[in-house]
């Protein structure tokens, strides 16, 4: 079985335990944060094990290369502490089980991974994906299992991830373009953290988009709109890629006005918070987030993750913001798609 | 002997009668598992007077007559077990009146659920009726004749409790009004304060008369409907969860269901609850009350609310097509269910029985229980899907359903829309004096035993 590589010493000597200090869901002073982290490191009980809402953010807050969020998951599972009710946890395990229903396009050396999210198949089409759209993969067999970290089922991650990787290996691919942050985060953060070898090069779809948009620069008509970006939890696994959103927006003429809940301080879509902590926290997070989007003067809410989009679309639309996926915005900028406007 | 066909044509005209082989073939069966039986004639009346004349003729000639709506009860209730005339009521499909302020509608005896729904949407958007999840072509009269349940049953009881008056053609050919319409032009009460004679017809499966008009209660149609699903892996908690929810007195409909496929539903029990409001605030307030009422199960991790986002459009559909989709699981599909009315506290026993039967007879199961009138009882559906081309599988489904009914009767439940075999099992278990009373009613109303014979055979 794969084991989490976690450097105890790095935490023991950490000058600023930002992992917990910056946590948006628990309050600590510096000493307390350090103590709680060391309890986790040493496998002792800690309030973090019952209070953490699994927002993924501490993976970004730790700048010293450790994996606090994965460690919390490991410790919870060791102690049999569930995040969500059993029935919900098992529902996710069953829902994402491999049943031989995968769909694989004409894959050569590159695959375009749409995880287990049907909407990604539609998004990964058109001129921007012209060269790779036929190489789509879809299904539980090609789904990154990162979602199970929300339920502290690290064993499911460790059991399924090597199989997923093996399915790509069997396709003989050299590169996998990941349309979902969670997939890219899985191959570049979770896999190495657990010593799982990835025999292909994962490519983040925003890198791919940026390259394409630069090639097609002459076809871009700036959209001249103001938008609020909804950062997904899984982007916290790959914080180095967060800047790409702004680069793409600049290129297609979308202004991202400053707002309170952006960058490190982003709030997630809260769908998982509903399951883990109940509707009160989820409502509060969504309310604050959408109020902030409205206050910054945005007329669009730009999504990166289709799950966030499905959770928040109706809610943002009710507040006058038009929900749109970042790929659709790019398609609009090159004249391939109409830009919708919420009435 | 009279030329029956000629007499029927005289009453109904050429287009209202048939004994063509292909038509008889069609009217010999329903979509369930019971064997077909051919009628001799099929008639499709357009007026109460035509119904009356056909019934009189049938009574004189002692010919069985089976009223039929859309034939979707699935338990063979419109299969002419003893031949005779099948009376297809679907041409009597008018909506005769809607009294907006008194919130009732009067419809003809073959009016479909879908027609009333569409009419209300167009002309009385403030009002709705308790729509069952049956296909929209099924009829209102048939539904009350079998004590159906619909979207508002959790709040207001069986759909037959919502009847506000009846016009019935008795087996001897008299046209009889039941309730307030027997005294004046208004259709606001089926019984009170008169002796409630509707009980002579509701639940009798067309064996005591034919409804030519039905008055039906309508209810406020709130602007917003929403849905949540609570999930638990502990079947023993389902009754407690429903108890907490019904205590709120806020829910339109509550269904408890489980099925092994698709895989995401495996091993869990799901309680779907619908709630309504005229404003977002009202809906959110109710959502908060719902969540709070089940907090204790969430804290112990015994249950929680699942995300319904992508399922919402399907869940909010009325009627819901998902149930019919289940029928096609083994392809070429069909399904039939036994749906005893029982106590909610017996839910765990029924649930285990369904799984036991599915394993024993190697059939695919699903079960959906609907809470009736604030938790006084529930309809617990035991559904098995089958492939029509697989005779052995259909036989296994029949056996499984019979065994389910035996179990329900043992547990003190009442079979719902029972097929003729289940009716027999029920009558055998009935208190002898109750049976005697039923016999007195039946013999007096239908002395020649012409009405849907083979069903509720009490003599
Ligand atoms: C997918 C599916 C979902 C369903 N969901 C529901 C549900 O949610 N709730 C529910 O209650 N049922 C449900 N049903 C069962 C059934 O379809 C309904 O009860 C429906 O109302 C039956 O109507 P029908 O017109 O098809 O009746 P039929 O099968 O034609 O007739 C049923 C009975 O009524 C008698 N009858 C018909 N017309 C008259 C009349 N005018 N006067 C006197 N007796 C008459 C018949 O003789 C027969 O005994 C469902 C069925 C299916 C296939
Ligand atoms: S996880 Fe990172 S931030 Fe937290 S204490 Fe350890 S080294 Fe410091
Ligand atoms: S995952 Fe989020 S809630 Fe949990 S400890 Fe890390 S930052 Fe806090």
Low-confidence runs of at least 5 consecutive residues of chain B:
none
**Helix residue percentage of chain A:** 40-55%
Judging from the principal axes of the Cα atoms, what is the shape of chain A?
globular
The fraction of residues in strands of chain A falls at: 5-15%
Largest sheet of chain B: 8 strands, antiparallel
> How large is the count of helical segments of chain B?
15
Total domain modules of chain B: 3
Instruction: Report the strand count of chain A.
Output: 9
Q: At the first level of CATH, what is the class of the largest domain in chain B?
A: Alpha Beta
Which pair of chains forms the biggest interface, and how many residues does each contribute? A-B, 21 and 27 residues
Main sheet record of chain A: 5 strands, mixed
Estimated structural class of chain A:
alpha/beta
Give the CATH topology of the largest domain in chain B: Vanillyl-alcohol Oxidase, Chain A, domain 3
DSSP summary: helix tally of chain A: 16
